[in-house]
Design goal:
The chain is of the alpha/beta class. It contains 14 helices and 13 strands. The strands form two sheets. Strands 3-2-1-4-5-6-7-8 form an eight-stranded mixed sheet, with helices on both faces. The chain has a five-stranded parallel sheet with strand order 10-9-11-12-13, covered by helices on one side.
Length: about 450
């Protein structure tokens, strides 16, 4: 599978030439950002026989990958080892961008402290690679962002190199759709949306992704592709906000929200079940809607639905803490000074991804109110270093003795590895934010 790392940049003739490299299996793929999006994509390109160079700025991650180890729970070390044996190398040497035919950017796009788009990772990436861009390459941005980013932010870097987009260089936007831990859909089977700066760019983007994705969906522009990703996540954010608000109403009325959802889901049309929780997590849904909110202001528009859903979802961790306080008070216990165990701190079931996890916000609210808080998560053995959250904790083993030693346990992420019968038997009080326990028991409080 080895592809020569020395490339004659004068051999490029046309869009057809680049497309032939993809279909013929001779292209070299460069992926920038080897996290939850970039690494599965690298593995998929390797799987079809294309050579891959991985770029990252995290020295620890680079060393881990080059040692044949996986930094992500649901990606096997054996897959990394096979890719390395076939020539893959992770590097922070951006001069190697000149070697590759396709550059795929998969870097984070967080929000700033003022909840505005932070494109610093994209901009710094473009600054790092711009000197090495050359004729005959395609650049694809996969990071979620506001409509216009590809044209307004990336395109100038390319044009400053004197490269004519659509003729000498190809620029596309193709939003990532990874769902970590979802065994039903893989990088290969999730349809890929592609929008190009020009028709030729779109054609090159289609050819790039058709080598690894079963279905490529072309749209008319990069802006359309950018907004497609935002709509997907806004749809989920608004519906989760709605069902979380319904949970608050049901709680006050003494109605089981999960029974309501299950009954409504029997309707064979016009209803899609969404389930409440302690808030929103992951890198997409809590963040992406506000990229459109920010951009809409440029056009004098307010995004009422988006902002209201965001407000409801952001307030859920504090509401959960209120339910914990009420449950302890009902047992003549104070929140201040109590010992509480958080069950599950990854943002979703059966993954090790901590990004924007509502569990962490619950833990912080508890700590701020005087609680001695610890956690148990089979996928996160030690609380990771995070930019905004700091706990010096390791995961507690769930023994009967440990469970019974806490005033309460809060089920925040319903991992499959938890022994729910054991938890029910030995915990003194269970605050269930995920609807895992559908029984009536005096020690279970629905939150």
């Amino acid at each position: 599978m080895s592809t020569s790392m020395t490339r004659n940049t004068n051999t490029f003739q046309s869009t057809e030439d680049l497309i032939e490299r993809f279909s013929g299996g001779t292209a070299l793929i460069g992926i920038i950002g080897l996290g939850y999006v970039g690494l599965p994509l690298a593995l998929r390109f390797h799987e079809v026989g294309l050579s891959v160079v991985g770029f990252d700025i995290d020295a620890t991650r680079i060393a881990t990958l080059n040692a044949g180890k996986s930094p992500i729970k649901h990606i096997s070390a054996s897959a990394i080892q096979k890719m390395c044996a076939d020539g893959f190398k992770a590097t922070d040497d951006f001069t190697r961008i000149a070697e590759v035919d396709a550059i795929i950017i998969c870097v984070p796009t967080p929000l700033s402290s003022h909840r505005e788009p932070d494109l610093s990772f994209i901009i710094e990436t473009m600054k790092s690679i711009a000197p090495y861009l050359r004729q005959g390459q395609i650049l694809s941005l996969e990071s979620t962002t506001w409509p216009g980013t590809t044209e307004e932010v990336l395109r100038p870097f390319i044009e400053q190199r004197g490269l004519a987009i659509g003729q000498e260089f190809f620029l596309v936007y193709s939003p990532e759709r990874e769902d970590p831990g979802n065994a039903d859909y893989t990088t290969r089977t999730i349809p890929k949306v592609v929008g190009g700066s020009t028709a030729a760019c779109r054609d090159a983007g289609e050819a790039l992704y058709k080598t690894v994705i079963d279905r490529v969906v072309s749209v008319s522009s990069t802006e359309t592709a950018e907004l497609t990703k935002l709509l997907e996540n806004i749809h989920r954010s608004v519906n989760i906000g709605l069902v979380n608000e319904m949970k608050l109403i049901c709680d006050r009325m003494g109605i089981d929200i999960y029974e309501v959802i299950d009954a409504a889901a029997t309707k064979p049309f016009g209803f899609t079940p969404y389930y409440p929780g302690p808030g929103l997590g992951g890198h997409c849904i809590p963040i992406d809607p506000f990229y459109l909110t920010w951009k809409a202001r440029e056009y004098g528009l307010s995004t009422h639905f988006i902002e209201l859903a965001g407000e409801i979802n952001r307030n859920m961790p504090e509401w959960v803490v209120g339910k914990v306080a009420d449950a302890l008070n009902a047992r003549q216990k104070s929140l201040n000074g109590s010992r509480i165990l958080a069950l599950g701190i990854a943002y979703k079931r059966d993954v090790d991804d901590m990004r924007e996890s509502p569990s962490v916000f619950v833990m912080e609210h508890l700590r701020d109110r005087g609680v001695i808080v610890e956690y148990s998560d089979p996928n996160v053995p030690k609380f990771p270093r995070m930019r905004e959250h700091r706990f010096d904790l390791s995961s507690v083993e769930l023994t009967p003795e440990a469970l019974s030693s806490y005033d309460a346990v809060i089920l925040l992420t319903d991992h499959s590895a938890f022994d729910y019968s054991q938890i029910l038997e030995h915990a003194n009080l269970i605050i269930d934010t995920r609807g895992k326990y559908r029984i009536v028991d005096e020690k279970i409080v629905k939150a």
